[in-house]
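Handout for the seminar on molecular recognition.
Each group receives one record of this type.
Step one: identify the two inputs.
Step two: read the structure output and locate the region that could contact pyridoxal-5'-phosphate.
Step three: write two sentences on what you found, then compare them with the reference statements printed after the record.
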Amino acid sequence: IWVGATAYPLKFNYKKFAEIADEVGAYLAADIAHVAGLIVGGAHPSPVPYVHIVTTTTHKTLRGPRGAMIMVTNKGLKKDPELGDKVNKAVFPGLQGGPHDNTTAGIALALFEAAQPSFKKYAAQIVKNSGVLAKTLMDGGLKLVGGGSENHLLLVNLTNVLGAGSGVFAQKALDLVGLTLNKNTVPDETSSPFYPSGVRLGPPASTSRGMKEKEMKFIGSVILEVIDLLKSYRLPEKKEERKAYITKFEKEIRANKKMKEIHLRVKKLALRFPIP
Ligand SMILES: Cc1ncc(COP(=O)(O)O)c(C=O)c1O
């Protein structure tokens, strides 16, 4: 049984998953790719006491280079003392060839950074920032999957404001004003993975730049302003009409005066918080 996700805004209840797995004698693995940095920083519960295996990427909230790690817990070794060896052998020679030593060194540095007291503060600030951003968006009438954010991630369902399949409009328009996020499916998606009805965003990168609650309120208000400008657009129901419609949308939104003005405001903020 695997527990982990790529667009989940709430805390995982690893204990509950362990109860289910233990009841049927299953192995339980936690994919903590998204929340690894929060777990190390003490801002999200750890799966280690509850699962047999932990996997993670190293380039999300852990803030390292693109890579990954697989760890076997004490609980895992108790279930099968050879589990660690089996995983090692499955990786090499089973799946991988030569190591990328440069990446391994980068991961070591990221883990060193994550072990510093400043990283604890960073993780806590990410969660605070996410909460403020979530509240700002919800106060402005947007629907958040899960009713808010308890971690580093927000998933906005745009169906009520821009219709089904509208994530593409929000992604493209926000990109133009300097805010990077991605379109994403939402629970009970009525559109398709290519034209999903939501967007996924989060503050880990802006928090690394030193942004706090005040800046999150600003960013949230900008998102609301931009989405308000998109209200007349709807994804065409006929698939063959979509490409041309989106091209026209991009042209119009690029020429929009208000968009240009918002972009300048975002740029001003970004310049105040340079990438460290
Ligand atoms: C939960 C989760 N696990 C694993 C991965 C795998 O990452 P990658 O495709 O970079 O190997 C991702 C990627 O975004 C993820 O969200």
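Reference statements: The longest strand covers residues 53-57. Residues 2-114 form a domain with the Aspartate Aminotransferase; domain 2 fold (CATH 3.40.640.10).
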